[in-house]
Fold this protein.
Amino acid sequence: MSLLVQRENSYANVVRLNVAAVQPEVFQYGMQQGIAVDLMGNLIGPSNPAHAGEALVVYCAGWAP
């Protein structure tokens, strides 16, 4: 599986992920926003966007190492 992150008209490099034999899912906050936080624990979203090179934690299930 490939993961592609888009912010407005900019795209990050595509990352290949191994997926376990279950349905992968990114946990959501609200109806459309995935849960991602910066290293200080602040929720990433429209009012607090991530910046190039910033490390994030994305909460999900079903990914294989």
Residues 20-64 form one domain. The radius of gyration is 12 Å.
